[in-house]
Amino acid sequence: MTQGEDFRARVLVVDDDASLSEMLSIVLRQEGFDAHLVERGDEALDAFRAYKPDVVLLDLMLPGKGGIDVCKEIRAESGVPIVMLTAKGDTIDVVVGLESGADDYVVKPFKPKELVARIRARVRRNDSPGADTLTVGPLSIDVAGHSVTRDGQPVSLTPLEFDLLVCLARKPWQVFTREVLLEQVWGYRHAADTRLVNVHVQRLRSKVETDPENPEIVLTVRGVGYKAGTSGQQ
Amino acid sequence: MAERAGRSVPETLRRGLTFWRRSIQARVVVSTVLLSTVVVLAVGWFLLRQVQQGLLDHRVDTVVREAGTENQAAQERLAAVPGTDTDANAQANTVVNSIFTSGEARGFSVVMAGPGAPHTSLAERGTKLTPQLDLASVPQSLVDHFDESGSPTIAWTYTTIRFSSRGEVTSSTPGIVVGSTVTIPADGSSRTVYYLFPLDDVQQTLALVERALLTAGALLLLLIAALTWLLTRQIVTPIRLARRVAERLAAGQLQERLRVVGEDDLARLAISFNQMATNLQRQIRQLEELSRVQRRFVSDVSHELRTPLTTVRLAGSVLHEARVGFDPPTRRAAELLQTELDRFETLLVDLLEISRFDAGAAALDLDDVNLTDVVRRVVDSTRALAEQRSTEVVVRAPESPCVAQADVRRLERIVRNLVTNAIDHAESKQIVITVAADEQAAAIAVRDHGVGLAVGESAMVFNRFWRADPARARTSGGTGLGLAIAMEDTHLHGGWLQAWGKPNEGAQFRLTLPRHARHPLRHSPLALVPEDAAEVVA
């Protein structure tokens, strides 16, 4: 590998449709990404380990192994952003995909710009400046070190969950609407699918709350959005 | 307490009336019993009258004959007396005493009146009578009767026989008084003797008959009531069963059937009913299967189209991006490819959405939503289209938020469909969007002043692929499914989506949502007919 290729973000495309995969790779390469194609679900994990991508594009219906299972496997060993490609925009499919660990989803047929914007948003993490250490209830967040501890125990969060938590924790007095969160955490302006926020908040809660049914760290403000729970000290 | 009683009485009455209306059995039993009562009473009355008349006639015959016999006996005794005895009073006394004796033995009372001027009462004439008998027991009419007619031998009438002691009436019974004249041989004068026969025994017999008739009538009515109840029960029970089964069938339990017992009419009714149910079930199953297969097919086709469409879409974009380097015809081709792909895609997305509604797979993701926010977002996102058509879009919303429980994604789609539809048909005239809410409901009305809708079109606009004028060019590239999808979305919320329109005066689409999901809607906070057009309709 040459030095120049290292700067290109790597995208692992897992899709069984050869034409679509090829077309995706053409578009992605035009947009300055490096793409690697996998056609079978059961080959995806090996390819992931070998290729070490920055973003995974994952079709839901795959031969060999379903996209949901592949998603869970990858998520079990890495926090790499996963964007699902789905032919079904039904709430239930989207929610199942997101709950299995995906960060985002794109419904076929998508516009190339839309896909690229989402991949870019996932690759380019928004490293906002600010306090290095934040505290929400029993959680202590090391922003620079990208780590979260709960009573001294490290909590494993994906980068997106981490960003969501940091966004809320930076302004514990502010209530964030889902649209604002989409813009600040996901980096989307008009992609108004607030289900993304709902599912990620649930995922975050299941990791950081003692009782996800009665959240204390990420609170719901009915009719408005979410806010961070009372922080011990800023 | 009084108030509660006042409320509970009409309540009971209402329940009774409801029962009356609902129960054939009660109505049949009550009307049969009423009718039977009338008949039984009439028959009873007639019988009683017959018996009474018969008994009285018989009695009258008996007593008149008896009085006649007595009289004759007395006359004979007088005739037997030697002609020398000339004391008329003594002769009369003899007669009276003998009649008294026989009266005591046979239970009748006797009055013998002395001679007197016509139309004088018995008391004035001097009488001999059974002790304690009240003189008023002999009616004056009978006394007068003997005065008027020359020499009647015997006459009778009904009366009330009274006995009194020291001015007080001790007993009073109905009776027959028979009068008859006796000639005293001594001076040839005549005395009238009144025989008073009590009707005690007749009265008792009548009372007995009356009691018997009453008892028999009551028992008969009871029997009729019980019989009717039993009969109607036999008819009504199967009908009620059939009703219950029909209700269950109507509720979708298509496997419900009636039990068939015997071979009578009801059994045949049950058999026909069951046949009908079976046919219905088969037809419904067939239709369900057909529509399931069809929906499944539409859904599958749409899904299968998605992946190749994505590839084409990406390829089209690549070509479109590179069009600067093409010769003009190829460049134009690339552009057309791009725009038509957009159209194709929206159509596919809409079709998929519709097929999802048809499959019943659409689910609500409810949240408290401020309708004003949604409207403003939609107006922002459609601004480009509005400016392109040089159409002004005005939002009129109250200061306070208009919150309703809704699926924000679907609500936004409804409003977007209404607003783009209005922009399409507004002919560059102003569009006004009004938002309002009250305790029960929240509403959005989108008013345009464009081509409007003809009579009868306001219901058809929500039909799939419906176009007001098939010849009219489609300008916006709408799929023709937007309003149909909006309608489905609204139904999912339990809301209303209605259209009003007049040709060349524009149209108004009103969306009403209940503030709490699943609460039934009763009214809308906004009028369907806009104020500026209300008088035209009124």
Question: What can be said about this structure in brief?
Answer:
The complex is a heterodimer of chains A (234) and B (538). With 234 residues, chain A is an alpha/beta fold. Chain A has helices spanning 3-6, 18-30, 41-51, 67-77, 91-99, 112-123, 159-170, 178-186, 195-208; strands spanning 10-14, 34-38, 55-59, 82-86, 104-107, 133-136, 139-142, 147-150, 153-155, 176-177, 218-221, 225-228.
Structure description:
The complex is a heterodimer of chains A (234) and B (538). Helices cover 41% and strands 21% of the residues of chain A. Chain A contains nine helices and twelve strands. Chain A has helices at residues 3-6, 18-30, 41-51, 67-77, 91-99, 112-123, 159-170, 178-186, 195-208; strands at residues 10-14, 34-38, 55-59, 82-86, 104-107, 133-136, 139-142, 147-150, 153-155, 176-177, 218-221, 225-228. Chain A has a five-stranded parallel beta sheet, with helices on both faces. Chain A has a four-stranded antiparallel beta sheet with strand order 6-7-8-9, covered by helices on one side. A three-stranded antiparallel beta sheet of chain A has the order 10-12-11. Chain A is globular, with a radius of gyration of 18 Å. Chain B is an alpha+beta fold and 538 residues long. Helix content of chain B is 57%, strand content 16%. Chain B contains 14 helices and twelve strands. Chain B has a five-stranded antiparallel beta sheet with strand order 2-1-5-4-3, sandwiched between helices. Chain B has a five-stranded mixed beta sheet with strand order 7-9-10-12-11. In chain B, a hairpin with a 2-residue loop joins β3 (154-165) and β4. Chain A binds chain B through residues 17, 19-20, 23-24, 26-27, 30, 87-92, 108-113, 190, 192-195, 222-223, and chain B through 303, 306-311, 313-315, 317-318, 321, 345, 348, 352, 356, 361, 363, 365, 367-370, 377, 381, 403, 408-409, 412.
